[in-house]
Amino acid sequence: MIAIGERPIKVKFILPSLKEASDPHWRPIKYSLFPPLGLATLAAYLKSDDHAVIVDEHVQSLTLDDEPDLVVIQVYITNAYRAYRIADHYRRQGAFVCLGGLHVTSLPQEAAPHADAIFLGPGEQTFPSFLVDFRVGRPERVYTSTTGRTLDRIPPIRRDLISRASYLVPNSIVVTRGCPQHCDFCYKDAFFQGGKGFYTQRVDDALSEIDRLPGRHLYFLDDHLLGDRRFSESLFAGMKGMKRLFQGATTVDAILRGDLIERAAEAGLRSIFVGFETLTPGNLRRSNKRQNLGRDYKAVTDRLHSLGIMINGSFVFGMDDDGEDVFRRTVDWAVEHGITTATFHIQTPYPGTLLHARMVREGRMLTQDWNLYDTRHVVYQPARLSPATLKTGYDWAYEEFYRWKSITQASLYHGSFKHQAKHFFYAAGWKKFEPVWDLIIRARQLTRVTPMLEGVLSRVTGSKPKSPQQSDIQLLPILQPEAFANTSCAEASH
């Protein structure tokens, strides 16, 4: 290739739409939550006179008649085919095309024919090296992240390239990379192999990034916000005076251990994504989710409820010990323990994971159509269920958990009317008002909903779970028609 030299380069960063965008059950609000921070992070390594754009195909139209020098595409498993088509187009047009992301790292041999360069693993160290090579006309075909991974003094994310009005949570942020846990079904071990699997920013850098964000609400997209106690303690101490309201994700054992979750609540944590995954110990052992083994899930929910922290519980169906009763047992447990919102998944053996390797050895994989690897389709042979039963049970679980009756019953778990109302409106707003969300998205008015979200996330503390007899007393006020008419709040979850 001809060296770019010192002239400014035109760079187009693309997040292709996931296959789900064409699915009849597509929920626009789910993919209008967070901007593509990974691409905005890479854009920060460009020179000040380079010209960059970010196109997130979930919220923007992608035009293909331009002529960038460099195209950088982020590839997930369910947007892989779309990503390859876009890459092939731009290569025919003469652009230099880079592919990276989880799927590229898992299957580099599949991605390589569609790219001029591929990136394996995180890009904070490899992308700057590539830019140097690209400018002098000698780029490598493969850039692999191994040693030297760090987030120290990385440049500020290019938030100026993000269309804030297109997202419900433009104030999303990532202050760590990876996860200290090693679950067999998770992509992350493959993505971070060859180097550090979990590391953090400097606390002062994280606080500076938070300080740049307007408003009060934040969403930490880290896989495990409480994964490094010293870092998290310092982060929450620094946030205490900021009057922020934030959401994030953590693990069962981190919630039960020490007082870190209390420190998070004092700093403004109001909602947390928790990977319960399964109620069956055998499934936990088989998937190497040791951080959940022997843990009292009820103690987790009670502790979070006492701190006024809403719970987005994650549950996986189709593990090897799951029988036909798993759907009812899981939904009943979630409702009875006041889980605010639930994210259900069909177990999906992603390429590059230990789970996938085991399923291949056992001859249980049914398809390699990546469009179906969205945790809503069955792509393997379950041990104790038919694929049809697993799919039907998964669909039933979502429908059952988000029925008006279930939302109301789960909200009554809390000990105060304010906490009950907060739960009810948050859960109902997330699932029961799709036409309203679609209208807001089309009008590009999502940022106007932020004050409502902040209001719902206001702190509720000190409420204890009520007995069934006590809960029945509060049933009528919550079921007033006015409550349904005025519900319009959203959950910013994974």
Q: What do these coordinates show?
A:
The protein has two domains: 10-144, Rossmann fold (3-Layer(aba) Sandwich), CATH 3.40.50.280; 168-411, TIM Barrel (Alpha-Beta Barrel), CATH 3.20.20. The protein contains 22 helices and 14 strands. The longest helix has 15 residues, at 387-401. The chain is of the alpha/beta class and 494 residues long. The chain has a six-stranded parallel β-sheet with strand order 2-1-3-4-5-6, with helices on both faces. It has a six-stranded parallel β-sheet with strand order 7-10-11-12-13-14, sandwiched between helices. A two-stranded antiparallel ribbon has the order 8-9.
What topology does this entry show?
Elements: E1 10-15, H1 37-43, E2 51-56, E3 70-74, H2 80-92, E4 96-100, H3 102-106, H4 108-111, E5 117-120, H5 126-135, E6 142-144, E7 172-173, E8 176-178, H6 188-191, E9 198-200, H7 203-212, E10 217-220, H8 229-239, E11 245-250, H9 252-256, H10 260-267, E12 269-277, H11 281-286, H12 297-306, E13 310-317, H13 326-336, E14 341-346, H14 354-361, H15 387-401, H16 404-411, H17 417-431, H18 434-442, H19 450-456, H20 468-473, H21 475-478, H22 481-485
Parallel strand pairs: 1-2, 1-3, 3-4, 4-5, 5-6, 7-10, 10-11, 11-12, 12-13, 13-14
Antiparallel strand pairs: 8-9
Helix pairs in contact: 7-8, 8-10, 13-15, 16-17
Distance between the termini: 41 Å
Strand content: 5-15%
Question: How many β-strand runs?
Answer: 14
Enumerate the strands of the largest sheet in spatial order, edge to edge or round the barrel. 2-1-3-4-5-6
**Poorly predicted ranges (pLDDT <50, ≥5 residues)?**
467-494
As for the CATH topology of the largest domain, it is TIM Barrel
Q: Please state the overall shape, judged from the principal axes of the Cα atoms.
A: globular
Based on helices, strands and strand pairing, what is the structural class?
alpha/beta
CATH class categorisation of the largest domain = Alpha Beta
